[in-house]
Amino acid sequence: MEKIKNAHKLVRWNEKKEHNNSNKDDGIELTELNSDEVTYVEPEKESISELEEKYNEYLKEKSEDDIQKVKVPKAKPENSNPVPTIESLASINPRYVASSFIDGITRMRNVDPIRSVRGLRIAKTKKLTKTNNGWLVPGAGRKSYDVTINGDGVYSCNCQDFKNNTNVCKHIHAVWALEENVKIPSVQVLDKQIKALKKSEKKYSKSWSVYNKAQRGEINAFLEVLKEACNLIDEPAQDKGRPRVPLSDVVFAATYKVYSTISGRRFESHGERAHDDGYIEHLPHYNTVSKYLRDPNLTPLLTYLIEKTSEPFSAVETEFAIDSTGFGTKVTDTWHDKKYGVTKKKKMWTKLHANVGVKTRTFAAVKVTDIHANDSSCLKELVGRTASRFKIKEQYGDGAYSSRENCSIVADHGGTPYFLLSKRARRIAKGVHIWSTMYDIFHENKEDFYKHYNNRNNVECAFNMIKSKMSGKLRSKVFESQVNELLCKVLCHNIIVLISELYNLGYTLEDVKESSILDSQMNVITVNSFEGTEQEHVHA
């Protein structure tokens, strides 16, 4: 029965095939025929076996035709449209970009990958207008920026990012891509690249619960640590005369007054509460505090307390950054301009030189001078005092400290210097081999050099922490008083940093009261305990 069904199928297939072939147009015009002229001729019947052979041949031909009809996609060239890498997107040479001049220091520009990709996006989506001396580049809003190119082919821009930072701005990247006929990928690819670069940025998490505890309990903990620091002061002997106010109470009151950022008269109510709580035995008059601040003999004592408050980090800090900053005063200097016969005034300021630990931003060594003191001349003293209490592995500094003598000083204390070299620097060692080593790293492996050198930014951060919390101006008018007031600010900063790290390690106010935080033999902060919270500092 099955064979009969298959036979009927083959017959119907053959009839259908012949019918289709008869209806094909072979290029011959068909004419209408009368029904009388048409005669039906019955086709010859083929055997089932012949039909099977014909059907199998048909299936074979059909399979070959289908295989030929399948479109095989052409293989794309390997580099037809590659996903851009960071190196290819940020390939502009910083030598052809105007150097930055910030804080009186000339620096070569850096190439930021995110800015370069954003510049390519501007060149892809915005219309840049050619000008006489460069290009007019539209910004994110309605404002446009002028990118100028001088005769030497050096780019410069008038945007704030170019003026205030050391990176090549995105507008210069856009002009460079347009002039160099860079093949820019699609906007979607650029957006993905920006997103990937943002994810790759190193981010530090903050434990808000710990931060809130540290901020809420800072003043009480500050008084406890300050009291412990003042207890380290040895009272000078007095044989006769009127009994003096204890020196520890004067230092406590002066430092607490600077921490409060208010005047001496208004501070007396805070001093009374500190006296009632037992932090000081005698409450000094505000004039007494001002008198002691004018005493030059107080300077080495405050310097000693600053160093003692940094010693708890002696097991943690091995890398240091040196720099200087200015603090404004109310004092003005009058000078006569002989050329124009005019008397002019200018504000005076006091200069703070410091060597700061890059992990905790604690001040390991400080020195206060007038505005005319040279930065490089202070390195020997600061590094020497730091090395007496810390193990220096790396020492960072900007171009002001770049000299063979300073490199030799750092190397003598067991450290590796990373000072920014100027264009005029030469490799000649002149007996200081560490200089030629640093020169080779700077010129042959800039990426590795800047990986270390960029830690220098922490000293700038430490200066900003002081100025933002305790003001960047000094109330005192006499220079000796300005020096001591500035040292009190640094002492307050060191105590605040110490409190923040103690809260990071799980300490409470009761623990601070009971523990000898400033005792170097207690080892309150160790390397192991610090590494567990290194990413969650709660510096104020």
UniProtKB/TrEMBL annotation:
<feature type="compositionally biased region" description="Basic residues">
    <location>
        <begin position="1"/>
        <end position="11"/>
    </location>
</feature>
<keyword id="KW-0479">Metal-binding</keyword>
<dbReference type="GO" id="GO:0006313">
    <property type="term" value="P:DNA transposition"/>
</dbReference>
<dbReference type="GO" id="GO:0004803">
    <property type="term" value="F:transposase activity"/>
</dbReference>
<dbReference type="GO" id="GO:0008270">
    <property type="term" value="F:zinc ion binding"/>
</dbReference>
<feature type="region of interest" description="Disordered">
    <location>
        <begin position="1"/>
        <end position="28"/>
    </location>
</feature>
<keyword id="KW-0175">Coiled coil</keyword>
<feature type="coiled-coil region">
    <location>
        <begin position="41"/>
        <end position="68"/>
    </location>
</feature>
<dbReference type="Pfam" id="PF01609">
    <property type="entry name" value="DDE_Tnp_1"/>
</dbReference>
<dbReference type="InterPro" id="IPR053172">
    <property type="entry name" value="Tn903_transposase"/>
</dbReference>
<keyword id="KW-0863">Zinc-finger</keyword>
<dbReference type="InterPro" id="IPR007527">
    <property type="entry name" value="Znf_SWIM"/>
</dbReference>
<feature type="compositionally biased region" description="Basic and acidic residues">
    <location>
        <begin position="12"/>
        <end position="27"/>
    </location>
</feature>
<feature type="domain" description="SWIM-type">
    <location>
        <begin position="145"/>
        <end position="180"/>
    </location>
</feature>
<dbReference type="InterPro" id="IPR002559">
    <property type="entry name" value="Transposase_11"/>
</dbReference>
<keyword id="KW-0862">Zinc</keyword>
<protein>
    <recommendedName>
        <fullName>SWIM-type domain-containing protein</fullName>
    </recommendedName>
</protein>
<dbReference type="GO" id="GO:0003677">
    <property type="term" value="F:DNA binding"/>
</dbReference>
